[in-house]
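Table 4 source record.
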Amino acid sequence: MRELVSVIAKSLVTQPDKVVVTETVKEDGEILIELRVAPEDMGKVIGKQGRIAKAIRTVVKVAATKEDKKVTVDILQ
């Protein structure tokens, strides 16, 4: 899942070298993916009214469902 988020984010931003994706497994087995981008690229990852962020979360959720996992994507500054 981490690689999927990384590929999507790097294709959206102007500074792909500043994209950092971390993956943490919580106690209940849920996977938390944290996406960090350069401050000037934040709007490109979130999109108007959060549409891009929602699309990223939807794609990851579908991929996670195929693997029978639960994944949460957080976009951090």
